[in-house]
């Protein structure tokens, strides 16, 4: 009976949906087989698993108090370590596979909810299938490495969809969880609080407070306070912008500036970060005061917040660009829907081509140095410019439409 149900479900899918199912199934199958064979190779999941174990046993979480030469440093909050405790019950192989399956399930489910609830255009089944296909190139590397960014983008998508659905507590909880993982997703929370101050701001602050306090209920208070102090010190000491151009440098706007080269100090770059954040905030407020449809407003806020997080965030790696995967997929589809000049519709496609090229190069170790040339940040800049141009164009069109005088039937007849 189950096989018959699966067969009927498969027969009911159209060609784009079948293609999306096949592509994502192959991606997951290959990754899960690789993880089953070598669970610690090309994977950051052991960092999370060990952090969960150390939290459970009351050991130190952060470098230099804990150091393993075979692993990177754990950089997330104590609350994140709490959430990783249950994964220690399983073996490395089982935990690594299950982690990726749960991550991709949340990711794709949240993207489907976001597409149905938030996007300003109601996508049909074929268009939703293309959305998932277009998001795949920027998602593969992150899934393969077991990065937490998959969960991060899932809760941000879910939080934005919850805003549109009027589920404010869920929205605040999702965005707060992402913020407590990596701090910089708080940009989306601040923008939503700016645009929806009465319904979202207080809930968001309360969710942050609860998330910060919860670890004190699950371990000794002195131990938790010490971990918070070590975590904050680790964040302040992580100066990736000062590193030479290598595999460890952040692949963000600062890398593109260094490669031009444009003479600029680190303080000058921080000023650019603040100015760009202010520009995103002004765009969000402009859409709010112009009475833009809420779906269009939320789509713009999510897209511009994602661009800022990746391009101006504190620790952007190749895998971080999964935060732009749904945005890029939607921008390409929107270019097909919108009746705007050809050069404007080509901008997202140019960004997509560069992203696909860079992700493909990362699969071959001998070509990975090409990523140091700034292909990823250039693709991100192109996407950001395209999103800004498209949203400004739509705002101006709405203003012109709102200012046109109404023509009454009697006046038209006269």
Could you describe the 3D structure shown?
It is a single chain. This protein is mainly α. It starts with a helix and ends with a helix. It is globular. Helix 8 packs antiparallel against helix 15, helix 9 (about 170-180) packs antiparallel against helix 10 and helix 10 packs antiparallel against helix 11. About 40% of the residues are buried. It has one domain (about 15-400). The chain has 19 helices and no strands.
In short:
The chain is mostly helical and 414 residues long. It is built from 19 helices and no strands.
Shape call: globular
Helix/strand order, N-terminal first: HHHHHHHHHHHHHHHHHHH
Beta-strand level of the residues, as a percent range?
Answer: under 5%
Poorly predicted runs are 406-414
- Please tally the β strands and state the result: 0
| Mean pLDDT rating | 85
Q: Using the CA coordinates, give the radius of gyration.
A: 22 Å
The biggest sheet amounts to:
none
Q: What is the total number of structural domains?
A: 1
Termini separation comes to 69 Å
Tally of helical segments: 19
Question: Structural class, please?
Answer: mainly alpha
Give the % helix: 55-70%
Layout of secondary structure:
Elements: H1 2-11, H2 15-37, H3 45-57, H4 78-83, H5 92-117, H6 125-135, H7 140-145, H8 149-164, H9 168-182, H10 186-195, H11 197-213, H12 221-237, H13 253-259, H14 266-289, H15 294-312, H16 325-337, H17 342-362, H18 375-403, H19 409-413
Helix pairs in contact: 2-5, 2-6, 5-8, 6-16, 8-9, 8-15, 9-10, 9-11, 10-11, 10-14, 10-15, 14-15, 15-18, 16-17, 17-18
